[in-house]
């Protein structure tokens, strides 16, 4: 362990397999990544060199301000004129920062990127003439006695992402997949400190919104004879790499057992200052249940934690949110709930809003707009009630619930729209 630690903190490349070296950079002082992720242990920018009998490949680079260290490590294991291929599994700046200078130092090298990465590459290197080759699943680079195979894994977590598999050594250069923000100079998963929290935290904030794409990627990765996973961030997974593939499968599976027995599910959340929005929520829920085919759950989120509801929302088919309007805005628990949904995939679910108000009543429209921004469908306009809802307004809430149920179960009648309604 001490030897691994000493090797990792020098400016020399670190051997991770025969003819394969880590040449990345350590960033232990980083405490926030992409604004939204906390990094208590910093991070690493992992880059790798693969040497074959017919040339050298560099896989990913590092953040630009770590370029000097990257080039020193690269020079310790290869000459620039040996570099035949440069592979970028992902074009985000923390992986591509040293690319422009590397292309200058190794102009003969062919750059390989995923087919979806082409517009991003042009945006990254404005105006420069680039010698690059777009690749997709099934394409390969022959380095003589080493072969790099490409796997398209889009949206993990950008549209351009791919993985690269070194066939002869069983190494998956996985990009952001199976990575985490955890910096430890000992480098390997069986030598560093306990990074389980960082691994799961990274998945929850980076990969979970693209859970369906994770499952598609796993269909390609699970059959591979893996001996080592070399991600773009965090420890190199040389000990039992298959454990991390299994864990991704577990994390990407449905979190909750659906007890609705084939019914569609509607979850209704509300905050109520004086009982008015609660009454509206109850009326909406009753209307949906009366329509049939929908199982409804009702939750008062005042003063409670919203994080336990995230799994529930991810598994539900529809979401209705009720908020009073206070100081021209929806209330904080509602915004907390809505902001938590950026970590899950809610695209295409049905959404609705409702609420009581005293003066101006902006909350309902604000919530509807946010639901649309999260890519939910909002097929029915919400209901507002001034102060205490009337019998008619509660009836409108019941109709709202009924309409949501009909949309969920595909029983909405087509209607002819009078053009005068659109004026």
Structure, explained:
- By secondary structure, the protein is of the alpha/beta class.
- It has 2 domains: 2-252, Ribonuclease Z/Hydroxyacylglutathione hydrolase-like (Metallo-beta-lactamase, Chain A, 4-Layer Sandwich); 264-407, Flavodoxin domain (Rossmann fold, 3-Layer(aba) Sandwich), CATH 3.40.50.360.
- It is 31% helix and 22% strand.
- It has 13 helices and 21 strands.
- It has helices at residues 2-8, 67-77, 93-96, 99-105, 118-124, 196-207, 211-221, 242-252, 276-291, 309-315, 332-340, 363-373, 391-408, and strands at residues 14-17, 20-22, 25-27, 32-33, 37-38, 43-45, 48-52, 55-59, 83-87, 110-114, 132-135, 140-142, 147-152, 162-166, 171-175, 228-231, 264-270, 294-300, 318-322, 350-357, 383-386.
- The strands form 5 sheets. A 7-stranded mixed β-sheet has the order 1-2-7-8-9-10-11. The chain has a 5-stranded mixed β-sheet with strand order 12-13-14-15-16.
- Helix 7 (211-221) packs antiparallel against helix 8 and helix 9 packs across helix 13 (391-408).
- It is elongated.
- It starts with a helix and ends in a 15-residue tail after the last helix.
């Amino acid at each position: 362990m001490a030897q691994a630690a000493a090797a990792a903190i020098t400016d020399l490349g670190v051997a991770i397999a025969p003819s394969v070296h880590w040449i990345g950079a350590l960033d232990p002082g980083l405490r926030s990544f992409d604004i939204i992720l906390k990094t208590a242990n910093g991070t690493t920018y992992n880059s790798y060199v693969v040497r074959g009998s017919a040339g050298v490949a560099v896989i990913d680079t590092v953040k630009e301000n770590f370029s000097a260290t990257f080039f020193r490590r690269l020079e310790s294991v290869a000459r620039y004129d040996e570099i035949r291929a440069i592979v970028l599994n992902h074009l985000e700046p923390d992986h591509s920062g040293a690319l422009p200078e590397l292309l200058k130092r190794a102009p003969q090298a062919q750059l390989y990127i995923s087919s979806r990465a082409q517009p991003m590459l042009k945006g990254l290197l404005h105006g420069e003439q680039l010698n690059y080759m777009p690749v997709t699943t099934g394409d390969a680079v022959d380095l003589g006695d080493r072969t790099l195979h490409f796997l398209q894994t889009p949206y993990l977590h950008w549209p351009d992402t791919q993985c690269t598999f070194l066939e002869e050594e069983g190494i998956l250069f996985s990009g952001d997949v199976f990575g985490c923000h955890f910096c430890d100079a000992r480098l390997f998963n069986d030598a560093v400190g306990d990074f389980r929290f960082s691994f799961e935290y990274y998945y929850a904030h980076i990969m979970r919104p693209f859970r369906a794409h994770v499952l598609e990627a796993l269909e390609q990765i699970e059959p591979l004879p893996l001996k080592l996973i070399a991600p773009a961030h965090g420890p190199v997974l040389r000990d039992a790499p298959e454990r991390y593939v299994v864990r991704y499968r577990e994390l990407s599976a449905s979190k909750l057992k659906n007890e609705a027995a084939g019914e569609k599910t509607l979850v209704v959340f509300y905050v109520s200052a004086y009982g008015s929005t609660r009454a509206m929520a109850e009326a909406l829920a009753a209307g949906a249940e009366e329509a049939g085919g929908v199982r409804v759950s009702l939750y008062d989120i005042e003063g409670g934690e919203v994080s336990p509801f995230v799994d529930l929302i991810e598994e539900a088919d529809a979401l209705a949110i009720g908020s009073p309007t206070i100081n021209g805005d929806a209330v904080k628990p509602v915004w907390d709930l809505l902001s938590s949904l950026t970590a899950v995939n809610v695209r295409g679910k049905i959404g609705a809003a409702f609420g009581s108000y005293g003066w101006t009543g902006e909350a309902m429209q604000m919530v509807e707009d946010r639901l649309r921004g999260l890519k939910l469908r909002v097929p029915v306009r919400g209901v507002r009630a001034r102060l205490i809802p009337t019998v008619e307004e509660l009836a409108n809430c019941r109709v709202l619930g009924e309409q949501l149920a009909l949309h969920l179960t595909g029983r909405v009648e087509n209607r002819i729209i009078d053009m005068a309604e659109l004026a």
